[in-house]
Amino acid sequence: ICAADAARTPAWWETCRDEVLARAARGTPRYLYHLPTVRERARELAALPAIDRRFYALKANPHPAILRTLEAEGFGFECVSAGELEHLFAVLPALAPARVLFTPSFAPRDEYEDAFERGVHVTVDSLAPLRQWPELLRGRRVLLRIDPGFGEGHHEKVRTGGREAKFGLAEDALPEFLAAVRELGLRITGLHAHIGSGVQDPRHWRTVFARLAALADRIGTVEVIDVGGGLGVAYDPDGEAFDLGAYGAALADARAGWPHYSLWVEPGRWLVAEAGALLLSVTQVATKSGVRRIGADAGMNALMRPALYSAWHRIVNLSRLHEAEGAPADVVGPVCETGDVLGRRRCLPDATAEGDVLLVAHAGAYGMSMANRYNLRDLPAEDVFDV
Ligand code: LLP
């Protein structure tokens, strides 16, 4: 478990360690986002010729500086609630509505109404909106979210396809859906699918594209195929990196059979995960029954991913970055739950003590956006860093 760090390319927070520590001195818990990393990822993705349009799934991290950075890189945005739409247009008032997708799940009527009024692309993902609100839907242009019958991703809670997932129209329900479409004079301009988050094998998107394209051929009015987001990230620096080249190749291969459809994608995590770090301060160090615990000033309230998905994030003692790794310790937060553990059996320096700065890496996606005030603790601060 205590792998040596020697051969790794330094992360931005290692290269800029003094500045990161200076930010931590302003107060922790604090999220810090490195905008050059966001730009670098955006450009890598933009360089894939198979993709026509990219929409950033802002649920991953809606920080205004990140939205502005990605807008400047030519990205559109994928929103899932009226709140996200409102936030997006408040940050980017001049953004063209055609650069925005609204892809909600079981949202109330007024959120669809709001989205149609704003003129953004709207996705429906079951017959319910057509049946429940025919007057609102009549004559509209919409995308239809399909459940391709399988889900993928880093944890069962983030797999969004298959019978047990709430998302999308099952393929066998298409004829009934199309009958309702004809009745309401709706036009399906796009097909959409998102199979899950943290997908490592790019071949899945080829399968998804092929399924959607085959359905699109049956529908006849489809111009766009949106294969969602889900690109994986290597949280463990010794782990397998996401193969962007293979992703681009799988999409290019899929498209070859259907060049007439425009291909859209909606990545969230991949663009921002590595750009974010969570800075914490050590509060107490205690040992019970042979288990050493390093306490931090925030835990599952600031970063839910370890508690919710058993997600692994690298944790370092930034104040003692170059000291030798010590005996394994659990890094825990101050929340009154047994699950409030950010990392188990981590080899932080033995001298780790109150006031040291801990850095939780790859926390830029689904970190602050899922933080909460449980136990009435304050939300973390947020800072950006652009060098
Ligand atoms: N499009 C749709 C329709 C989505 O539901 C999502 C994510 C995305 C795109 C972006 O997926 P990404 O590229 O970020 O994987 N909180 C979980 C992840 C939940 C993802 C929800 N939907 C986590 O921390 O792992």
TrEMBL record:
What species is this protein from?
Arenimonas composti TR7-09 = DSM 18010
- Sites where N6-(pyridoxal phosphate)lysine occurs are at K59
Q: What is this protein called?
A: Diaminopimelate decarboxylase
> Where does the record place the catalytic residues?
C336
So where does this one cross the membrane?
A: none
Coiled coil spans: none
Q: Which residues of the full protein are shown?
A: 486 to 872 of 872
Q: Which residues form the Orn/DAP/Arg decarboxylase 2 N-terminal domain?
A: 51-273
